[in-house]
Amino acid sequence: MKRNATVNESKEARPAKRDPEGVRRDILSVAMEEFSQNGLSGARIDEIAARTRTSKRMIYYYFGDKEGLYQHVLEEAYGKVRGGESNLELDGLDPVAALGKLCRFTFDHHRRNPAFIRMVMIENIHHGRHMQLSRTIRALNQQAIEALEAVLTRGQDSGVFRLGVDPLELHWQISALSFFNVSNAATFSFIFGDGLFTADGQDTLSRHVADMVLRYVLQPEHMGAIAKDGQ
Question: What are the sequence ranges of the domains in the chain?
């Protein structure tokens, strides 16, 4: 009886087996924080292992090595923003509403995910070397251009958007306006104050970014669509 009790206690004390996909997600989430805060060279696999209650061996089993983990984090970060764009269901909206919604989403995603912006900045320091090794990132971002092109084409076909707007250039403009808001927040707020970085200030900037982009693509006679659509 005593022996059976000991066996039962041993079973109860044994930790539950963790879901492999859950472990992988946890590692990527913590690694995003570690890499975005400390860069590729400064990030510590020991720290990631400790915070996820795994081991370096387990991390290397899933991702190969430190640079492999870093590349997977980049892919995960881009997958999240592109997945969010896909969920906007822009095809069901008129072109003005669709473009305005895309602009607002991009701005709001970036301000709520500063780790993503820092990861992009870090990868630029490395001259995009790890991105070049990833087929996933290129494919994900090509989908973003194609989705924007579809919105532009619908607007041009209906006579609302002017002709000659390049979707890649427009994507650059939306990204630039949204990126600067996060990448330069510390220096900008130190020099000019933090009024633009309050909740109200950020909401105003988000609306105005959408306004600027729409004014760039709309035919002059359709500028009233901005106020009508509530952008």
Answer: 1-64, 66-229
- Provide DSSP, 114-167: HHHHHHHHHHHHTTTTTGGG-HHHHHHHHHHHHHHHHHHHHHHHTTSBPTT--H
Architecture of domain 66-229: Orthogonal Bundle (1.10)
Domain 1-64 class?
mainly alpha
| Alpha-carbon gap, residue 210 to 214, rounded angstroms | 6
Q: 39 is written with which tokens?
A: 């860069």
**Which candidate, 109, 116, 110, places its Cα nearest to that of 32?**
116
Q: How far apart are CA 175 and CA 121, in angstroms?
A: 13
pLDDT digits (tens, 9 = 90+) for 141-178: 999 999 999 999 999 999 999 999 999 999 999 999 99
User: What gap in Å lies between CA 70 and CA 65, rounded to an integer?
Assistant: 9
* Same fold for the pair 1-64 and 66-229: no
Selection from 229, 226, 178, 184 nearest residue 202 by Cα: 178
Contacts for 219 with CB less than 8 Å, ≥ 6 apart:
159, 160, 161, 162
